[in-house]
Amino acid sequence: MTVNVALLGLGTVGQGVYETVVSHQEELRQAAGESVRIPVILIKDSCKNRSISGDVEITTDFNDIFKYPIDAVIEAVGGCEPVYGYLRKCLERKIPVITANKELLAKKGSELMNTADRHQTELIFEASVAGSIPILYIIKNYLKVNRIQKLEAILNGTSNFILTAMRNNKQSFEQSLAEAQRLGYAEADPSNDILGWDTFYKTMILSELIYHRQPDWNDVVRKGIDQVTLEDINAAIESQEKIKLMATLSRSSNGSIKASIEPVRIKKDHPLYAVEGVNNAVRIKTDLADDLVLSGPGAGAFPTASAIMEDFVSLFKNNKPLKDISKKRRAVPLFK
Ligand SMILES: NC(=O)C1=CN([C@@H]2O[C@H](COP(=O)(O)OP(=O)(O)OC[C@H]3O[C@@H](n4cnc5c(N)ncnc54)[C@H](OP(=O)(O)O)[C@@H]3O)[C@@H](O)[C@H]2O)C=CC1
Ligand SMILES: N[C@@H](CC=O)C(=O)O
């Protein structure tokens, strides 16, 4: 048997997913119990050269994906429109969706999750937060008894890459951003990265997961790294400190959720001090486990494809065919 996956988007992430499906057939067969094939890929610009095998249809028409017996959809386009409509259509047809799209999830995650629920299918999105780090899985499945008191995190690979390059190589902000774009870390619109929006969306997803709701967006402090200068970085070095774009999330005693995203100076003994380059890290303080820190690459083709493909195989429980897997088996619902 073969599982057919429609891939939406063939940029940094989509290409990483496509190549992983080609290079990891054996592992996918082991984990999913069936071989995995991508018969169709949606793109925007039909004039670009693509390194894709000849038997894959490349299309600019979303509806073409339904010409194939699609078992799952992987979305790597980004943004809200037209993707929201596309994913709704897939879920309404009971097709499970795996997405890396944090902006869409922060803005429309509840609606899409309700659609998935109504149609008894899955919407999963490990890749939307902290790249390759399985942070959503760990919070959902491994911290059910613990009370999460506070979360501190570096969630934007591009910003951390830029701050590291400015510090270590004395590169200018602009040069460092251009390098992050060349490496495929930055969003299509990099102002999402450098103004803190990307971290903001990821923090909202974490808030949904941990507290089952988001704070009022107007109450969230959101600053990016756009105002950080080489002088600021040198001043931090003088004090043996580093500047990091830090997200924080907690619930106050009155039940309100507090979140902030801003560049902060941290000292050598801070657990996230050593997190450099494109890496992300999440520090979770809980009442029982105490202080947990997870780190790993937060952006890039293969770290993101890793999270997407691990999400994908998580759809296969006990090697059952995808169509036989009931939605009701999902462990803890997110966005509810
Ligand atoms: N880059 C990264 O490291 C990470 C990215 N993400 C998320 O993954 C998603 C994709 O990111 P990334 O691969 O970097 O983005 P890219 O800009 O590299 O790729 C986007 C892809 O989507 C296609 N596309 C854009 N608009 C449309 C449209 N209207 N209809 C059809 N196809 C369209 C583009 O087509 P064409 O090729 O024709 O231009 C391109 O193939 C985003 O949600 C991003 O936030 C998540 C984690 C990490
Ligand atoms: N642009 C994002 C990509 C991953 O989510 C980042 O730099 O972290």
UniProtKB/TrEMBL annotation:
Associated pathway: Amino-acid biosynthesis; L-threonine biosynthesis; L-threonine from L-aspartate: step 3/5; Amino-acid biosynthesis; L-methionine biosynthesis via de novo pathway; L-homoserine from L-aspartate: step 3/3
Homoserine dehydrogenase catalytic domain sequence ranges: 134-313
Boundaries of every Aspartate/homoserine dehydrogenase NAD-binding domain copy: 9-126
Database matches in PROSITE patterns: HOMOSER_DHGENASE
Origin: domain of life: Bacteria
GO MF, one example: homoserine dehydrogenase activity
Family named by the database record: Belongs to the homoserine dehydrogenase family.
Name of the molecule in the record: Homoserine dehydrogenase
Organism this protein belongs to: Scopulibacillus daqui
